[in-house]
Amino acid sequence: MAYDLHQLFGEVDSLLGKNPRTTLFEMSRQLSVDRHTIERVVRLRSKKSFRDLRREYLYARACSLLSERPERPLKQVASSLGYTTVQALYRFVLRNSGMGPTNLRRVLGLKEADQGPSLQTKPAKSA
Fold first, then answer.
1. What pLDDT was estimated at residue 127?
2. Out of 4, 17, 103, 105, which could bridge 66 as a Cys pair, Cβ 3.0 to 4.6 Å?
3. Are residues 43 and 63 both part of a single domain?
4. CA distance 68 to 86
5. How far apart are CA 62 and CA 77, in angstroms?
6. Rounded to whole angstroms, how far apart are CA atoms 3 and 126?
7. For the chain, how are helix, strand and coil distributed in percent, rounded to 5?
8. Is this model's pTM higher than 0.90 or not?
9. How many CA atoms lie within 13 Å of 9's alpha carbon, on the beta-carbon side?
């Protein structure tokens, strides 16, 4: 079956935007499209794997939750993102930003005050 790749990627993008925890299997069922087709479309359109694209959406959601209400407990942020423990949230944020959730929250708050939100907070690797 031939698919409009642009339209299919738009649907994938939209579903991940609504729920970044959506798995490839769930998306395949929702869209009635083979998972390999979804993986191929994502790779062609974004130059990323489905897993990497999904992680980016989840990280963006984490940044949003951490910065929009700084008083929100980390346990609540973790739960909103689908994590059962604060430790799991900590590992995810550390892997993606190079800092823990509390420090990321502080950095995001400073950047918002200065220039608006920015999701590029991972420090550059030194040579």
1. 38
2. 105
3. no
4. 18
5. 7
6. 43
7. 70, 0, 30
8. no
9. 16
Give the pLDDT score at 46. 95
Tokens 């407990």 label which residue? 73
Please state, in angstroms and rounded to a whole number, the distance separating the CA atoms of residues 103 and 107.
6
Residue 89 gets the label, from left (phi > 0), alpha (psi -120 to 50) or beta, of alpha
Q: Are 38 and 24 in contact (CB under 8 A)?
A: yes
C-beta atoms surrounding 124 within 10 Å: 7
The residue ranges of DSSP E strands in 1-127, in sequence order, are: none
- Where in the sequence is the domain holding 94, given as residue range(s)? 58-114
Q: Is residue 106 part of a domain?
A: yes
Taking 60 as the threshold, does the pLDDT of residue 40 lie above it? yes
Degrees, nearest 5: CA angle 101-90-28: 110
Q: Are residues 14 and 42 in the same domain?
A: yes
- 73 and 105 both lie in a single domain: yes
Examine residue 125 and state whether it is found in any structural domain, yes or no.
no
